[in-house]
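Researcher: I need the complex structure. Ligand is adenosine monophosphate. Inputs:
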Amino acid sequence: MLVFKTIDETRKFVSQARELDQTIGFVPTMGALHPGHLELMRRAKKENDLLVVSIFVNPIQFNNATDLKKYPRVLFKDLEMLKTIDCDAVFVPSVKEMYPEPINKTFDFGPLENVMEGAFRPGHFNGVAIVVEKLFEIVEPHKAYFGEKDFQQLAIIKSLVEMERIPVEIVPCAIVREKDGLAMSSRNVRLSPEERAMAPRIFKVLKEVAGKAGEMDPVLLQQWGMKQLQAEEAFDVEYFQIAEDATLQTIVNWQIGQGALAFVALKLGQVRLIDNIRINS
Ligand code: AMP
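Model: Output:
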């Protein structure tokens, strides 16, 4: 497995691969890898000749300085994990390598960025778009893999690729969960044992909400789900929304043929967790 710290080395590797007509599957990450990340990578490896992974804790997508500071960084362990899945190359740039000077680009994702994560984390998606566009320019992947755990991020990336006409196929991947239902996340290691024991309640509520969709209208269902979450003293709920998959706008009436999901973001102690579930009304 090759480990590149510079853009130049990575570009060289990529252009050699392209000359040999090898396809590149790319998985961008912020490290602190877990089996959820590995699932994306295994799929990328299977569907392409080469697997390229990036590990970069992107400072400009953090709207909270403490969250950035406390974000787990375990590069040595990550590299060991990547070796086990036969990763071909890892790009691990420094902040200076990625941003030698500040980037002031502003994207407009319209209504997609004004709800949920976009509303609660100002500037977050602009920072995500800047880094992903730059990573795509460097790695030039044929396919790039993103998790549905960050469903809104996936929608933003699809929109970015369309707007900027970037020649890459975006491949959505299902959420990987712990046995007790908690969505895997790099932030889970920051939960105390008590908080970790509470955390699976999030997915339990989402499943209950999905189960009630046939008998409740979306507005009442949203209120019911919110009440279940707020009933847990440990949960500081930021939002609980029932929204359409394509537009991410709140659903007020069920409509035939419309895709729906329930989305949640909450703080459990110091840790912010998000999750979602598809709903069949
Ligand atoms: P991150 O390192 O958190 O930026 O995540 C890198 C990629 O892995 C993103 O596309 C995430 O959506 C995806 N990912 C993270 N956790 C999971 C999970 N539990 N299941 C599926 N994909 C995930």
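Model: Summary of the prediction. The chain has a mean pLDDT of 97.
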